[in-house]
Write a structure and sequence with these properties.
The complex is a heterodimer. By secondary structure, chain A is α/β, with parallel strands linked by helices. Chain A has 16 helices and 14 strands. Chain A folds into two domains: 31-53 and 99-213, 3-Layer(aba) Sandwich (Rossmann fold); 63-97 and 218-401, 3-Layer(aba) Sandwich (Rossmann fold), CATH 3.40.50.1100. The longest helix of chain A is centred in the first third of the chain and has 15 residues, at 33-47. The N and C termini of chain A lie far apart (51 Å). Chain B has helices spanning 5-16, 32-45, 64-75, 80-91, 105-111, 113-123, 142-147, 165-170, 192-203, 219-228, 236-244, 256-279, and strands at 20-26, 49-53, 99-103, 127-130, 151-152, 155-156, 176-179, 210-213, 231-234. In chain B, strand 1, helix 2 and strand 2 form a beta-alpha-beta unit. Classes of the chains: A alpha/beta, B alpha/beta.
């Protein structure tokens, strides 16, 4: 394949049709189209409204706890013996991950649109918890669709959502994971289109969701830029983040895309290896297709049927990826690599022992890549990794994988 | 105005002063051979237009019945290539009944749009309904299909207001499929007067026939909807007729083709009485 000509800027997408090159778009049923167009109009207006921005920033500061710290991981750096490693600590946010950044933005938008009911899909339950949280905060009823398999392996988050007043609907279709939950949420939306706002958790789905979620998450990269300049007086050499749907990654990457000296790596779930079907490395092992409202890289068979992925991390267990990542891969700006289940599990333990931070299994994938790269880099070089979620939710399943009883 | 089997069928029905019965079933459900027998039985039972469902792993606008039918078909090895093969086999014995393929875009995209249109035309396909391709995405498949002489049939819904209707109708040909409510396939039917008003509204914008679907299950409903529309689409009821004769192991306990024929004969009777009912 020919490499497309390098654009003047990597930050101009999407175009008016919601496309990032050939990726993105609005592949939805006609029932949803008027709503998607209405959402886009409200989003365009909100973007330009200083009051919207001010309210979101106020909530970010006083409810989420922003800015999250940029932490120099001294012991890990020493242990690996190479580049200086910084963590963007979005795991310290209220609700324990970056998901709240997006949920606050979208619920303010839902309120502007006069919607009275919130629905969401969730995999690991982090987005479900964040959605249930903002729904409670704004007094709106909330239904969260969650794959039956995930309901089982993420029991603490299911309980959290229920405590917060959300109704959790298990979805048993397919393998009962994130993809199936998203199908069911879309079916709910088609049925209750009048009063319902679909609060999508990642930078995927029909336009304008990928752009909107990215912009709400870009607070991560914007803060990193200021913080690393304050700490080191220069930009980092390398950014690393885990990609499932890709919202934490695009949030870190986007403000740096036009800084050509900053190398950027996205880490996919390699599961049990890329040879079979037990992985979620859609960019490394998939090909472009159309699902859930957008064209993007998907795990699929030769007939265009979507495969069920596998990852040790429920949050990465999705056979697709946000469309902007597909475009960044093809344009060559961002490199995407897989990390296996066992590598993530080792990184999970290492960070816990060396820094006293229990990471979620999702950023543990990013960490495993940092562990590979840092020793090969100079001591004067700088890596920033997005530590996008904390591991409290994962201790039970990690114990099981490590053969411990708790 | 195009000149497909669909256009000819509606011209004939206008002459007969009756609405069309449009029947949906899933290609490959419960297996290829049985599905082909079902397809061959449809015209004789009174179906005027056949909607041939293309199974997809993630049917976002379908209810449990059609989801399950798609899963049965995929499990039985159905692919888009096999669905085209089924249409070709049907055409050998029937060159007049229109066939509309209905499903989602990804299998077509992966098959390759140009290759798909060429093979569909060769197989005797007259129209396409692709749920996740709104007018905003017309360059993907709609415009190439029109170029290949295949009708692209669009869904209009209760959320398609007067401002949007012209955009939805712009590149639509064959007929307009009015989805009688916001929701997934197989839900309850709304009241007939609302449907009649919606059909009139659409007809204010187009001379194309308007067929109504989503929720029609009985002959009485087919008769009521047929009184206010140019065609009645039945899908979930047919898919259920197949599912009802399958045992827990997936094997048929009675002939699915016969079960479908019985249902369709009843529906066809309802449709044929529709205009008589309004004349009374």
């Amino acid at each position: 394949m020919n490499t497309p000509a390098e654009p003047n800027s990597f930050r101009i997408g999407p175009d008016e049709q919601g496309m990032f090159g050939i990726f993105g778009g609005r592949f939805v049923a006609e029932t949803l189209m008027p709503l998607i167009l209405d959402l886009e109009a409200h989003w365009e207006a909100a973007k330009k409204d200083p009051a919207f921005k001010a309210e979101l920033e106020h909530l970010g500061t006083h409810y989420t706890g922003r800015p999250s710290p940029l932490y120099f991981a001294e012991r890990l750096t020493e242990h690996l013996g190479g580049a200086k490693i910084y963590f963007k600590r979005d795991e310290l946010n209220h609700t324990g991950s970056h998901k709240i950044n997006n949920c606050l933005g979208q619920i303010l938008l839902a309120r502007r649109m006069g919607k009275t009911r919130i629905i969401a899909e969730t995999g690991a339950g982090q987005h479900g918890v964040a959605t249930a949280t903002v729904a409670a905060r704004f007094g709106l009823p909330c239904v969260v669709y969650m794959g039956a398999t995930d309901v089982e392996r993420q029991a603490p988050n299911v309980f959290r959502m229920k405590l917060l007043g959300a109704e959790v609907k298990p979805v048993s279709a397919g393998h009962g994971t994130l993809k199936d939950a998203m199908n069911e949420a879309l079916r709910d939306w088609v049925t209750n289109v009048e009063n319902t706002y679909y609060l999508i958790g990642t930078a995927a789905g029909p336009h304008p969701y990928p752009e909107m979620v990215r912009d709400f998450q870009s607070v991560i990269g914007t803060e990193v830029r200021e913080q690393i300049l304050a700490a080191e007086g220069r930009l980092p050499d390398l950014l690393v983040a885990a990609v499932g749907g890709g919202s934490n990654a695009i949030g870190l990457f986007h403000p740096f895309l036009d800084e050509r000296k900053v190398a950027i790596v996205g880490v996919e779930a390699g599961g049990r290896g890329l040879e079979g079907d037990e992985h979620c490395a859609s960019l490394t092992a998939g090909r472009p297709g159309v699902l859930h409202g957008n064209r993007t890289y998907l795990l699929q068979n030769e007939d265009g049927q979507i495969k069920e992925g596998h990852s040790i991390s429920a949050g990465l267990d999705y056979p697709g990826i946000g469309p902007e990542h597909s475009w960044l891969k093809e344009s060559g700006r961002v490199e995407y690599v897989p990390i296996m289940d066992h590598e993530a599990l080792e990184a999970f333990q290492l960070l816990t022992r060396l820094e006293g931070i229990i990471p979620a299994l999702e950023p543990a994938h990013a960490l495993a890549e940092v562990i590979k790269r840092a020793p090969k880099m100079g001591k004067d070089q700088i890596i920033v990794m997005n530590l996008c979620g904390r591991g409290d939710k994962d201790v039970f399943s990690a114990a099981k994988h490590l053969g411990m009883e708790i | 105005m195009t000149h497909t089997r669909i256009d000819k069928a509606f011209a004939r029905l206008r002459a007969e002063n009756r609405p069309a019965l449009v029947t949906y079933f899933m290609a490959g459900d419960p297996d290829y051979e049985t599905a082909l027998r079902i397809m061959k039985a449809l015209p004789g039972a009174g179906s005027d237009i056949i909607e041939l469902g293309m199974p997809f792993s993630d049917p976002m606008a379908d209810g449990p019945a059609i989801q399950a039918a798609g899963q049965r078909a995929l499990k039985g090895g159905q692919t888009l290539a096999r669905t085209l093969e089924m249409a070709r086999a049907f055409r050998q014995g029937d060159d007049t009944t229109p066939i509309v393929m209905m499903g989602y875009y990804n299998p077509i995209y992966i098959y390759g749009v140009e290759r798909f249109l060429a093979d569909a035309r060769a197989a005797g396909i007259d129209g396409l309904i692709v749920v996740d391709l709104p007018p905003e995405m017309d360059e993907e498949l709609c415009l190439p299909a029109i170029g290949a002489g295949i009708n692209f049939i669009r869904l209009a819904t209760p959320t398609t207001d007067d401002k949007r209707l012209p955009k939805v109708l712009e590149n639509t040909s064959g007929f307009v499929y009015y989805v009688s409510m916001t929701g997934i396939t197989g839900s309850a039917l709304p009241d007939t007067s609302k449907v009649g008003a919606a059909v009139s509204r659409i007809k204010g914008h187009t001379s194309l026939p308007v067929c109504v679907g989503f929720g029609v299950k009985t002959a009485a409903q087919a008769r009521a909807i047929g009184a206010v529309a140019d065609g009645v689409v039945v899908g979930t009821a047919i898919v259920n007729a197949i599912a009802n004769v399958l045992g827990p192991d997936g094997r048929a306990t009675a002939d699915p083709a016969e079960a479908v024929s019985t249902l369709v004969r009843g529906l066809a009777g309802g449709v044929r009485e529709a205009r008589l009912a309004t004349a009374e």
